């Protein structure tokens, strides 16, 4: 008995140390990111950085306006959400409630495989197939637009949304479904009046995870959204070429002198991206807790 207790205490200590290392690493990462980004604001004001509409790092004086990058990220992410959320939830409902079990068993591994495809493969597919198709169909000067980025990010977010939402739907107690059907409800009425409300916390988490995947993606948007070296203002919509915050960091960080204004500006962009994803995760967690409390009540 004593040996068993010692073994359990050793496991607890090991898990505690692992958690502590993770927290310390995240804390040090935050300090490094925000310290390097804050050094930009010795010569540039925070307000001009957040509200600036021009990103001219090579001009004299250099202009570091976050607004075009933030707008590009939000436009591409919003388009991806509009495309992926309805399709993802519909696919999850079909796989969990409507599909033949043999078909669902075939579809499930394919969805998991899609989630594991590298982002550069999605980007290459978008560049070769989606970009020329959009250019021809919509008669655009170039197919490398925010719409192409939204389509590709929507495709990338779909597996996450489908998988998590399907698990949430499958976790609804069978007694709720049977009770609804016993009271005379049809299968469709049971789905949208009983099953979906009961699984809403998991579905909300799936949507927020999909949003987090979209807004933090780098390689795909860098390949299909028409990145330009100079950004002369705020993109107006889905049919304009854009550059996102993640693509800007990836494209420019390898070429800037360490310790320069441009270097610190890219860290400031990274800090804004970190804060954005952190807020999304907080919202997802609060929504999940809210609906869980409602279910328990």
Structural class: mainly alpha
What CATH architecture of the largest domain would you give? Answer: Orthogonal Bundle
- The strand count comes to 2
N→C terminal distance = 40 Å
Number of helical segments with 4 or more residues: 12
The biggest beta sheet, please? 2 strands, antiparallel
What is the fourth-level CATH superfamily of the largest domain?
MetI-like
Poorly predicted tracts of residues: none
Strand order, main sheet: write it out.
Answer: 1-2
Report the helical percentage.
over 70%
Q: How would you spell out the order of helices and strands?
A: HHEEHHHHHHHHHH
Q: Identify the overall geometry.
A: globular
What do we call the CATH topology of the largest domain?
Answer: MetI-like fold
- Rounded to the nearest angstrom, the radius of gyration is 23 Å
Approximately what portion of the residues adopt beta-strand conformation?
under 5%
The average pLDDT value, as a whole number, equals: 84
Tell me, what is the CATH class of the largest domain? Mainly Alpha
Number of domains: 2
